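Predict the 3D structure for this chain.
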Amino acid sequence: MRKFYLVYRDRDEKIIQSSIGQLRLLQENGIVQSPIGQLSIDHRSFPFKLSWTHYQILMTIENPEERSFYEQAAISESWNVQTLKRQYHSSLYERLALSKDKEAVMAMSRKGTTPYRPADILKSPYVLEFAGLDDKSGYHESDLESAVLNKMQDFLLEMGKGFLFEKRQRRFTFNDKNFYCDMVLYNRFLRCYVLIDFKVDELTHQDLGQMQMYVNYYDRYEIVEGENPTIGILMCKQSDEALVELTLPKDANIYAREYRLYLPDKKLLQEKLRQWLEESGTSVSE
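Done. Predicted structure below.
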């Protein structure tokens, strides 16, 4: 409880002001006796909206911006305690922050995260430890896809806010040749389709070209009025930014992002984020 007070004492004033306001209201209505038992908490203005167990976890996070991010996300997305633990241990804050600009990192800490543009749904890397595959053993793309489908709720949680599953192995036919996109999702905030292909081997320019074909097809034949251009994500063991930059036009809505089958080293990502913020001229606790 002492730790709770030290971490959240800045919110004391809100609670006090709320109580004083209710006491004055009672007095104005002619209720002058002891207000004990008559004061009620206005849950809309009450500064703590999660369970005590949630706050026991949040109190262990030293960085105020990171702690605020997880609290806001847990409230807005109704995370249970296990989900909060998983997102924290998977370094969600650092992975999202490293994919954003300086101003977006600060805003994310205060308000959580809601996608407004394609870059907002990207992470670096994606963590698929729930798939249960051993990163050291040999596995095929179909194995990874099947493992993810068996844990669809966990996968959508890892993808982020507003994702809906539509189809697996979406077939495209051109000149009597069949092509298959591993997964089709939809993001209700961005109002667009998100196509995903898993790549366990080295990323090639053919992979990028194939995804461009899938995206072009959806943009031309699938989207309806009011929807935004399709996004393509290649989830690969090892990305090659130089190859992506040379292969695709600058305005392409296609991204190559690495995935991991194990939880990342949190301290390493924290140090990486700290260095990035310092190079941007912002301290971690600014």
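The chain has a mean pLDDT of 82.
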